[in-house]
Amino acid sequence: MRNNCTLLRTALVAATIGSVFLFLGADDVYSEGDELTEMGLPPDIGRDEVAAYCDACHSLKLVVQQGLSRAAWEETIEWMVEEQEMEPLESDDYKLVLDYLAKHVSIEVRLKKRTQ
Ligand code: HEC
Prior knowledge:
Radius of gyration: 21 Å
CATH architecture of the largest domain: Orthogonal Bundle
Largest sheet: none
Number of helices: 8
Bound molecules: heme C
Order of helices and strands: HHHHHHHH
Number of domains: 2
Shape: elongated
CATH topology of the largest domain: Cytochrome Bc1 Complex, Chain D, domain 2
């Protein structure tokens, strides 16, 4: 009897901890990935930074809708900082964000989507 009780308690504790993790997981869309991938931001280095920085004032859809060259992304980020009151990015983050955008939200990617 005593053993059964302990087992039950252990199971209950495990279930509680499990649901807390589930709850936290559901809340954190960025670590899930799928939502961003569906939106057009596949997992890669720099995606977390893009999601964190560029989602602050407007939807990431606004970002994904574009399809720019690296130089045009540089100008866009500069424009965000100079005209839209975005905090300047630390240089490491700036590179991550720029690399990611140039690779995954490029003119080539946009053209490919259009012809699909
Ligand atoms: C501090 C707020 C802020 C942050 C942070 C921010 N933006 Fe923006 N962004 C804006 C505003 C405001 C507009 C709309 C400007 C307008 O249309 O006049 C905008 C518009 C845009 C557009 C649309 C431009 C167009 O031609 O229609 C793009 C693309 C964009 N942002 C990219 C980014 C990217 C990439 C990041 C992250 C590196 C970012 N934004 C972060 C404020 C911000």
